[in-house]
Amino acid sequence: LVERGEKKDQKINDSHHKELLDYCLKNRRSRDSVEKLKYLIEQQGADVNWQHDSNTTGLMWLCFWNNVDNVKCFMEIQTINVNLVDNSGCSAFHFASRYGSNLVVEILLE
């Protein structure tokens, strides 16, 4: 019974990780999405470092879309790993420097 409970909890946690990544993808321009991100991270336990099948993270997509407010939100999380890479070997820094802005690059470097 304990094993089943753990697996069930793991599925719940996985769904929150996926929801966080999906939210980053779908709400790339939303300025008021910081509260939703904080809720998913702080209240639902979504992992900011969770990687999709292609190993992309929410932070990578936020950098790609140049969403400064949400990048700042992610960077406030102590466990954030800006050095994770996707299947192409690109990190959030690569996304920010290629598609984002100097401000996003500066935020990542802080």
What's the arrangement of secondary structure elements?
Layout: H1 2-26, H2 34-43, H3 58-64, H4 68-75, H5 92-99, H6 102-109
N-to-C series of helices and strands: HHHHHH
C-alpha geometry = globular
Report the uncertain regions.
1-12
How much β-strand is present in the residues? under 5%
The biggest beta sheet is recorded as: none
Question: How many extended strands?
Answer: 0
List its traits.
mainly alpha, 60% helix, globular
Explain this structure.
This protein has 110 residues and is mainly alpha-helical. It starts with a helix and ends with a helix. Helices cover 60% and strands 0% of the residues. The relative contact order is 0.14.
Short description:
Helices cover 60% and strands 0% of the residues. It is built from 6 helices and no strands.
